[in-house]
Amino acid sequence: MGIQSSAPDQANWLESLYQQYLLNPDSVSSDWQVYFNSLNAVSFSPSVTACDRRQVDVLRLINAYRFLGVRLAQLDPLQRYPLPNIPELDPAYYGLTAADMAMQFDTGSLVASDRASLAEILEILQRTYCGSLGVEYMYISDIVRKRWLQQRLEGCLATPHLDTATQQTILEDLTTAETLERFLHTRYVGQKRFSLEGAETLIPMLQQLISGAAVHGVEEIVLGMAHRGRINVLVNVLGKPLMQIFDSHHQDAAALSGDVKYHQGFSTDVITPNGNVHLALTFNPSHLEIVHPVVRGSVRARQQRRGDVLGNEVMPVIIHGDAAFSGQGVVMESLNMSETRGYDTGGAVHIVINNQIGFTTSDTRDSRSSLYCTDVAKLIEMPVLHVNGDDPEAAILAVQIALDYRREFHKNILIDLVCFRRHGHNEQDEPAVTQPLMYQKINAHLGVRQLYADKLLAAGLAPELPAQLITNYRERLETEERIVAPAVSLYKRSYAAHWDSYRQHDWRSPADTAVSANQLEEFGEKITAVPDGFTLHPRVEKVVVDRRAMAHGEQLVDWGMAENLAYASLLRDGYPIRIAGQDSGRGTFFHRHAVWHDQHRERWDAGEYLPLQHIYPNQPHFIVIDTLLSELAVLAFEYGYASAEPDELVIWEAQFGDFANGAQVVIDQFIASGEAKWGRLCGLTLLLPHGQEGQGPEHSSARLERYLQLCANDNIQVCQPSNAGQMFHLLRRQMLRPYRKPLIVMTPKSLLRAKQANVPLAALTDGGFAALIGETQTLADVRRIVLCSGKVYYDLLAGREQRGINDVALVRIEQLYPFPRVELSALLADYAVGVEVVWVQEEPQNQGAWFAIQHHILACLHLNQTLRYIGRDFSASPAVGYPDVYEAQKQAFIEEVFVA
Q1: Locate the Transketolase-like pyrimidine-binding domain: which residues (predicted)?
Q2: Counting C-beta atoms within 10 Å of the first and last residue's C-beta, which end of the chain has fewer, N or C?
Q3: Are residues 108 and 206 located together in one domain of the fold?
């Protein structure tokens, strides 16, 4: 170890080394560890001079302010609590005294003169890190990003320098925010609106963000937010007409169930000085943070459509609540996946509306375990800019830094807008009951518009202007004028998705899903061609050899091959494909093998090959993603993606069907009801492995009954294909019909390799998906018709053959919703009057399809035909955990099916 020359470079080098030590002591040499340990113990090596010690102490002080200065920042508009005592921010902590204040020191990486007095250094640090803008970023391991932030913050002392015109624009935006809330409070008395009052600075922030993004070339912004302040954003930022928000009769009640006004979305094209920007505020239910991954998915789809690899043209902006950001796990999941290959969107700008209260009765002692509500952001080393909501100019500076940071590094960044909530959780709530002292301060607060107007008046603003701004804006509200003028009405966006051709179509809309044998053979050759020098695993090599034989008609086509042929044919038809799931590349059950892995190379070193990316030149993209261990955020992302891209097959696959339980919010509040509430079409496909296999309760059931319970008004499709050919046609039908509804597929497990579920190649070259498959054998006088769905059909078929039964017909319902009433009624009409119809399922009676579809079956019965249930009894668990009990139950209901 040695102290090098005393030039400024030495200080930079020493400071960088010390910061490295603070992050990870083992990352520096043992000599330096000993030295830095001695500094931390405030006991110095005899070989270091007093001057050197003071120099190092100054660098430590600089470092401390970068780490801890935020603790002394003036962030709370209500000033409820005294600032804490932070010893590390006191020069005396390092042995520096008043006598040292005039002494000159090297400033290291501090953005200042190479040398400055300790007093000057302290002033720079306090103004930069302890004003209205407090910053956390020193946990970032990338020194380049840290230095960039230091340049931006210390270079201007974290102080905005705005011209008069910009200041007046901020005042106008604050005026629109406050005046709208007061107008609504008197015009719509008693209606919930989840007021923005106390956080009005959000509106000038968003206006600056939009115009600033346009400077960077951003053409689309997708926003997500919960209900706090949503109406204000809709009116003042997106320009949605106020009457359209509050008029509950403007939509076709027969077509839509509708939703409350503070869940509604809106999209428009707005004019900025730097070009038009398309704004889309995503519809969002009350599950607050669930919109976060939906926004990211929508952005990724738009970026994909544009070829916007870096995210320069489409940007996500996500607005959070303080308690929800720290409290809901979907935030962590979304951040964790935000920089992975399948989910990166070039970073998002996050804004937390920090009311410092969360729900009405919350207390920070109970609402989180961390110091700041934003601490989960540190998971991905996201910088956090805390800003006092009473200082709109500091907030504007934070927005400018955030935009530039995202553009420079394509990373997430967060602005924590520390403010308050003037009313309770809603306008009918009385928060003073539980927060008396806080609301005494809030009631005495003048409001940020008044405070900022007073500041500008003191600086020479025309005295009449603030009141005139209020009058002008209120007149516009009274005349129901649209607040934000849209872009030219004839303006058309080149990359817009078009959904009109998918509306007003029935699920029976024709689709020619058959593919010629010649084409299938060609696809088979493409997806079984192994690149030169690429070594497959022996088991995968066997799969590939078999698939080549299947493509030539020499073997029956199994499930995995049927799937791959469906994808290849859709790619040839011009449809991109995106498949995501925790083991989707290989397939949880070792069946898909859409991704091959060279046994002699790592996957990132040319050791990964996707045959479906090589069907023909310039084909649409084929993406398959082995996702992180998340269901909630990932499925929400895929929903957002599919709802923004009608012409791509988007699939989410659960590793086991019951894993979708972890994403039930997405299924309930978006997938099943998004069209009914918001008119949003979506063609997302869910593949959910399902079936009783004797392997216990947790991986037996995809909870079919839950999806069927959600079915109404042809909102979703629920299918359970029983053979590989059906799966081939079902996947192709999903894209080839002019019909976009979510598709829920109960996919099998053991049937993936069961010979009885394999089909000849001709099954793919003829016909299409059959919603119902009738009896396939010639029977004698049928006394009983068995209706079933899924794998249980093969159990029944085996039971019939073993018993030599010839008078019980087996009928498969392959599409459980929309239910094929016409087809089933016609089939039952072919059987004798009075024949018994039974429904058989492998799930317990209170689960599976029985209770959801029996009314459909009853409607299809003919004269004197009766209906009853055969299967397992009621159960609180989806399946038994003992294989022998499972087998006994199965044999019992099979026996009951075939008794005379």
Answers
A1: 557-754
A2: C
A3: no
